[in-house]
Amino acid sequence: MKSIFQVLAVAFLFALPMAGACINSRDSFAVEVEFNKQGITDDLSKISSAENVFSENKTYIFQSEYDKEIASLVFRNSDDLCEGCVSLRMQIPVDSSTKKVPYFSMISSLPEKEINLTWNTHYKDWTIFYSDNPSQIEFKKEKMYILISFLSRKRELFIELDDKLEDCSECDGKCIHSSYGESCITKEIKEEIEDVLGYYNVISNFGELFYDYRIIGNGEKTASDLSPVASSELDLKRALEVELNFLQQSGVIGINYEDIRQIAALAQMGKAGKNYRIVYSPKNKRWIYYFQIDNPILTSEPDCRVFLPDKIPQEKIIFKKSEMSVYYSVPLFILISALILIIILIAIGRMVNRNHPV
Length: 358
Fold this sequence. Notes:
Layout: H1 4-15, E1 30-34, E2 41-42, H2 45-48, E3 54-56, E4 59-63, E5 71-78, E6 83-91, E7 94-110, E8 122-123, E9 126-131, E10 136-141, E11 144-149, E12 155-161, E13 174-178, E14 181-185, H3 187-199, E15 213-228, H4 236-249, E16 253-254, H5 257-266, H6 273-276, E17 278-281, E18 286-289, H7 321-355
Antiparallel strand pairs: 1-6, 2-16, 3-4, 4-5, 5-6, 7-12, 7-15, 8-9, 9-10, 10-11, 11-12, 13-14, 17-18
Helix pairs in contact: 4-5
């Protein structure tokens, strides 16, 4: 039998991955695209020399063309897809707060058993994260979190539900008795956990989780949260399309209109950050979300940093006239040259008609 100190030690160990987590992250109120497609060019010197631009941690921040309440963030990024590619992020300002939220958490010890490691990052609505040292697997879905650790001969599971469990008077799932009283894990939650853990061969049935277990929390906890300072009803799809066209016409990003159309079609609130940003897939020959590529490297750590409105310049970005004139002089030169050519051809035609009257 484990001592209370052992139980607390294990509980503390398993609680570490959840430390610092927030209910909604900064990514929840943003959309982001990484320009990793071959052939797309960039010139960030135009932004660095422009007016009404803030620079922070190698990121340029300026007011979006679509709405003054949305920030445009442009930065160069190096990751598993691209070395030094430019990314564009449309961010609604967010501030932090704390709130009381219901939760239930437990640990369960299971005998050593060969599990079905598929290395998939998604199973139905679950997102799966893998870690090699120490060997761990994390499962996240809405208000459910499961961590499996292989630190000993037994498999240790940490399960946390960010939801209030009712008493067992009308329990249709699993009734649990502990020092916290009676609590009912509903049939829906029971089947969700049983399904994902059964698929990976962690358990054969839900009851196995309760052969050797401890309830380590059941009640309320204080959690941090990020919420939008501006209206969360802003149309990020339209905002991204407008900003891409603006940066393309300004010569900052060399991208064609078909790519802009495809990227804008994928824009949704929350499609940002390491896991969910929009990227180009050479294999599929189209733009997709990062988690949809083959063997994505996902992170379970949310971005809980605030982004306050004072980070957005009060005025719209103004590029240097010389730089804008160079960009627009190309089509203007072509137009003028075409007009001159037409005039020359008309003049030649008239001379021919004079020398050869009908």
